[in-house]
Amino acid sequence: MRKFFISSLLASSVVLSSGVQAEQPPEKETNAFINKMVKEHKFEKESLTSLFKSVEIKPSIIKAITRPAEGMPWHKYRKIFLGDTRINEGVKFWQENKQTLEKVSAQYGIPEEIMVAIIGVETLYGQRTGGYRVIDALSTLGFTYPKRSKFFLSELKHFLILSREEKMNPLEPVGSYAGAMGIPQFMPSSYRSYAADFEGDAKRDIWTNPADAISSVANYFSRHHWSKGLPIVYKATVEGDKYKQALTKGLKPDFTAQQLVGFNIKLNTKLADKTKVKVLRFEQENHDDIWVALTNFYVITRYNHSPLYAMAVFQLSEAIKKAYVD
């Protein structure tokens, strides 16, 4: 396998402007990670050692990940993503990428409005892709955030391999505080597995190419078993408190539509008795809304493992579609 030479790339690294000595990753943990990369993935030890001397640990990243928006109640979370600006910008993005969305939707079976809404929720259609160097984000969380260390060190591994595969300077890509990248905010492992090349130019540019970003989102959903033409979620009405027994942990559908009757949960539509469903509660200011989610809703949560996120995507997609058609 190729060795990973990085010395020439370091010349273009970002220079600190604050004059304050940056905190570097802990030496013991970093050396262990480097040795593993050398042994398992044929990287060059000297190059990685030199690379990590330019990596910075960012306390602001730890603060951000411990206060995620998904910790908000639904009525507050919803306001972030369902405002006029995000809806109007979604219509504009749809209009500007109409042919691409039509072609990708036909190829993968993903509704155009869902692809638009994902990109709208993630980065306001590519306008807000993050301000942290990806390597700093992944190193900070991998080396100094024990709660999720295993996950983020794995993503750091994938990021370095990705940088080698795509011939990128690993000190240059910028993304979210969690290391998510580009217009669709793919983690490095997702990029390697699901990023798509729309034009067939041998490039998977999710940073500046909306077509590749749209195709990548569609490929992600397709590979996570989106069911073409099937519904996503229905608002329900309930009687009494028996519905609370259906509010189980997890996100995967775990009841059938037939079982909803026993929980006094009613829908304004008829589902086949064996349809798999998930009962979810969303906190409003003075009451709770009960929704019955189907398998496609679960697929949306594979992008971000939060029912609030999936509901925001769904409702934004509906609002954009209505505004687009009108």
Give a topology summary.
Blueprint: H1 27-41, H2 45-52, H3 59-65, H4 74-81, H5 84-96, H6 98-108, H7 112-123, E1 132-133, H8 134-144, H9 149-166, E2 174-175, H10 188-194, H11 210-223, E3 233-238, E4 255-256, E5 265-267, E6 276-283, E7 288-293, H12 295-301, H13 307-325
Antiparallel strand pairs: 1-2, 3-5, 3-7, 4-6, 6-7
Helix pairs in contact: 1-2, 4-13, 5-7, 5-13, 6-11, 7-11, 7-13, 8-9, 9-10, 12-13
Strand order of the largest sheet: 4-6-7-3-5
Q: Could you tell me how far the N terminus lies from the C terminus, measured between alpha carbons in angstroms? A: 55 Å
Percentage beta strand: 5-15%
Order of helices and strands: HHHHHHHEHHEHHEEEEEHH
The CATH superfamily name of the domain at 22-65 and 129-194 is Bacterial muramidase
Shape: globular
- Which fold name is given in CATH as the topology of the domain at 22-65 and 129-194? Helicase, Ruva Protein, domain 3
Would you tell me the overall average pLDDT? 93
Q: Do you know the CATH architecture of the domain at 22-65 and 129-194?
A: Orthogonal Bundle
Structural class: alpha+beta
Residues in helix, %: 40-55%
Can you tell me the residue ranges where pLDDT is under 50 for at least 5 consecutive residues?
Answer: 1-20
